[in-house]
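Action item from last week, closing it out:
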Amino acid sequence: MSGRLLAQTLRWQRVRLIAVVLAGIGWGLLIPIIYGAFSDVVRDLVDSGAFPAELMNFGSGSLFTLPGAITLGLQHPLAIAMIGIFAVGASATAVAGERASGTLEVLLARPISRLTLYASILAALLITVLVVLVAILGGMIGGSALQGSTDEVDLGQMPLVVLNGFGLWAAFTTFGLAASVSFDRPGPAIGLSLAYLLANYFLEILGSLWTDAAWTQDYSLFHHFNPGGILTGDLQAGDLVIVLVAALVPIIYAIVIFPRRDLAAPA
């Protein structure tokens, strides 16, 4: 891995990263506040029979408990969009964008191998994804402290939440970068990476809202990241294995494919 290329990649992302981190902290702060304001209302609606309990869930999260609200906040489209900026957008364009602009050849003309290029970009993107994830979780902890509700979660389990969440988003990041090294234009790489993310999200939401289709959740990577369960002491070791394997497979693919690719002249 090239430390210089790693640092340069992080510098290219710094303005966007700062903006997303600030937004992530703000979003995290809101979740405990929303939970405190609406959890009793949601519970009363379910108890009254006005709405089925299934419709009060969103993915694996809900507003019935603070851990459930934390899960909901991390599976909300806004949080996914924040992390997806780097896990999907930046990863899918990292190599294919350089290829389309004709600058990849200039970069590879330096004493740097393709594997070093790949490893450096991957490390930088994983760092940005981790920083955004930690920012959102940090906001949630801060919001819980402001609400005086930290006793509802086991904060000692937070490192496992970070590990599981990082594994989930590493899977999307490595997939996006694998797509990026496979195409000469960013369009197909972005489309494939986004489709992969949306397919997983669709299966998770479909299974949570439609009881007969609950089995679809098992095929979604999002379902294997349940911070609410971890914070209540219900860690499923299999979930960690699944997301980490999903992150490793695209890395193996990229390591095999990228060095073997012929780089045609850019259009």
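Closing note: The chain has one domain: 3-260.
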